[in-house]
Amino acid sequence: MSVHTFDTMGTVVSIRLPDSLASDDAQMALSMVEREFTLRDERFSLYKQDSEASRIARGELLLTDSSDTMRDAYAESLAWRDATGGAFTPHRPDGVLDLSGTVKADALRASDVVLREAGVDVFSVNAGGDLVTAGVPEVGAWITGIANPLEAGDVLSVVSMTSTFSCMATSGTAERGEHIWRRPETDASFVQATVCAGDIMTADVLATAIIAGGAETLDYVTSRGDVAVLVVRADGSLLGNDAFRNLVTPA
Description:
The protein is α+β, with helices and mostly antiparallel strands. The protein contains seven helices and ten strands. Helix 4 runs antiparallel to helix 5 (about 200-215).
């Protein structure tokens, strides 16, 4: 497999494509993926002063006057807020609209679409540990590790992605601290949540919602039946459902 990396959204994106893909086709596919991330970073980043999101945050632009893209992203986040009972939210505690909880997943989702439309049917796109996969690589399966949030450099588990669970996202507090807005009543013992699902938005949102909502949200997520879940507690103990255990690859 050939590997291409680039920096965006404060993280590193890694794309793996088959060596058999013609160089011109591979370069076109890579350029399309980079463009999907760049477009979203320029629009939604609150670290870019001239972004549409920053203008809304400063009160220079009303959400009702924003682009269709911005309003559609907001509507999708609101739908997830309702689905998770408010555990996931597109608003910071100070009321500022912050769509960072869905932007990276949306870029990964768009990358999946453009690669398939370009005729690439075997690939993985990993953005800071959140990934989408497709097809079967030469080694037989897309295998990825999950970092131990309590011990730097340690791999907590290794899983094989499948056609049913082709996407994975991890949210937690170990590396970036308490950047996820927990409910005041939420038990803070969950330090990391990994969710595998058939689409990256579901995986990413639900992983974040588990950290924000705690045990109640974990119960809701695992009751869905279409996700594989692994949660790490502050004391190092693990919570995982049967679907996740079925993905674990022996060392």
